[in-house]
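Anyone up for a design puzzle?
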């Protein structure tokens, strides 16, 4: 474990947390005694090395790995990319172990976000292959785009599925428009009713729900949530041996941003070596409506949040989490994820299902 990382663990589950940048550097799940441990999160090839990088590369990209919370999401004036929550210092404020074994580690961001104090709570429960995350904003002014930035790497490919979405769009501008620096393959901007019907720049249609669908490209797709309190995302990576799934408060985070990073950047630190990486990023930005990763402070025409609105007189929180299982034999695609009172049922398109222990009260259910 790299110096500075903190290990947080319960029976069957552990994470490594980096207080410098607030990153979940690694997740390790032990499905059963004797079974191979799962490590579903991605780590960039340069993240654990001391190779020299240009000074313009912010900390979050220098140590790119796992998941981190972005406030603001994207590149906004006056802060590093993805904000101080992904580049600043998180100070430990304590650990609490409940009678049921739930372990919660709490941190406070040293820097303020638009005048708000930000508290991070990371919770693990024995026997739950899931990390529960809560971010609390106390006070502050204005509004900003926010989101979680979980990443997996699937060289063997993955089939993607989601809670019901209204539509999907690509932003106004391609991530890599300059062929001297990189390559994007999708059409920008576009709107589609399905991830399986995405238009390429050459006019052809591809099924982007199977990733990767091409090599040597950098692309982004934004999915807009339908009416649901809890949204979910899943990636079944059969050849790589895991099923990744994430749940969120869809009222706070009504978008899913898919960052398809598959060798499409030729400049440092990427150098064409960042391949088969998929960011499954649960966000609140205006991109689903405006094509830009910005906040308006108001609901979009579709009635969805475009960001987080801060208030000096109150506290606002964002709840999200993710986990993983060994890829079930015979499964082809997750068809549904259902939250019960104290469990979670994941259903395959063929009808098979797996039920897990789950704290639905975390999401207010």
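Challenge accepted. My sequence:
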């Amino acid at each position: 474990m790299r110096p500075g990382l903190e290990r947080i663990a319960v029976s069957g589950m552990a994470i490594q947390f980096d207080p410098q940048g607030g990153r979940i550097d690694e997740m390790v799940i032990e499905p059963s005694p004797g079974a191979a441990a799962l490590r579903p999160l991605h780590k960039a090839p340069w993240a654990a090395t001391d190779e020299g990088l240009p000074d313009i590369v912010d900390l979050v990209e220098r140590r790119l790995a796992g998941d981190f919370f972005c406030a603001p999401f994207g590149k906004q004036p006056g802060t590093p990319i993805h904000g101080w929550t992904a580049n600043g210092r998180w100070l430990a404020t304590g650990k609490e172990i409940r009678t049921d074994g739930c372990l919660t580690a709490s941190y406070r961001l040293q820097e303020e976000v638009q005048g708000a104090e930000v508290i991070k709570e990371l919770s693990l429960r024995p026997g739950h292959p899931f990390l529960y995350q809560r971010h609390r904003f106390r006070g502050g002014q204005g509004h900003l785009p926010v989101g979680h930035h979980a990443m997996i790497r699937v060289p063997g490919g993955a089939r993607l599925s989601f809670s019901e979405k209204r539509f999907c769009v690509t932003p106004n501008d391609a991530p890599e428009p300059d062929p001297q620096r990189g390559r994007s393959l999708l059409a920008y901007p576009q709107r589609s009713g399905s991830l399986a019907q995405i238009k390429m720049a050459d006019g052809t249609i591809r099924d982007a729900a199977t990733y990767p669908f091409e090599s040597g490209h950098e692309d982004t797709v934004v999915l807009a949530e339908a009416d649901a309190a809890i949204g979910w995302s899943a990636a079944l990576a059969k050849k790589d041996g895991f099923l990744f799934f994430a749940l969120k408060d869809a009222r706070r985070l009504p978008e899913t941003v898919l960052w398809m990073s598959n060798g499409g950047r030729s400049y440092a630190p990427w150098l064409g070596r960042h391949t088969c990486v998929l960011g499954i990023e649960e966000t609140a930005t205006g991109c689903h409506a405006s094509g830009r990763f910005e906040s308006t402070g108001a609901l979009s025409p579709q009635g969805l949040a475009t960001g987080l609105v801060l208030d000096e007189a109150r506290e606002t929180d964002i709840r999200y989490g993710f986990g993983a299982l060994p890829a079930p034999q015979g499964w082809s695609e997750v068809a549904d994820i259902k939250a019960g009172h104290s469990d979670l049922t994941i259903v395959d398109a063929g009808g098979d299902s797996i039920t897990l222990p789950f704290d639905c009260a975390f999401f207010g259910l």
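A detail worth pointing out: The chain has a mean pLDDT of 96.
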